[in-house]
Fold this protein.
Amino acid sequence: MLLYCIMNFTPKFAVDKMLGKLAKWLRLLGYDTFYRNKIKPATLLSIAQSDDRIIVTRNHYFLKHPFPVPILFLKANALEQQLLRVNEQYPLQRKKAFSRCPLCNNVTTSIEKEYVERLVPEYVFNTQEHFHQCIRCGKIYWNGTHLQKALAFLEKIGL
Ligand SMILES: [Zn+2]
């Protein structure tokens, strides 16, 4: 049974304030990722603890004591290296990529084209057929150049 649990374990992250880019990318990959750009280590810790999240940080504060939650300390400054390090510890899967809003961490759902006409640029409306919308902040996503760039990046680093 333990093995069963491990295999179905989908990590949730609490990413420290200096790692905003990484947080956005974990969300792009579909991982539930808490992030605030202004937060004290103690607050991050209590959020991670109450919500079963893994803290991902570069703050040495988290190296000083034993903590009651898993801590992944990153040495690398570059996003690419950071993603690879997370992947090493918690193998990242792409199957849920682009199912979560990189801005607010809520899930997205597909939305009929007819509803987005006034919400996206005319060019986008005329050239795209499939749209997703964040259930919380309402942002609309489509298969545009940003998504293509993101996919190319993931490919490049071997995820
Ligand atoms: Zn959102």
Summary: The chain has a mean pLDDT of 92. Residues 10-89 form a domain with the Rossmann fold fold (CATH 3.40.50). The pocket of zinc ion is lined by residues 101, 103-104, 106, 134, 136-137, 139 (CB under 6 Å). The helical segments are 2-7, 20-28, 41-50, 79-89, 122-127, 145-156.
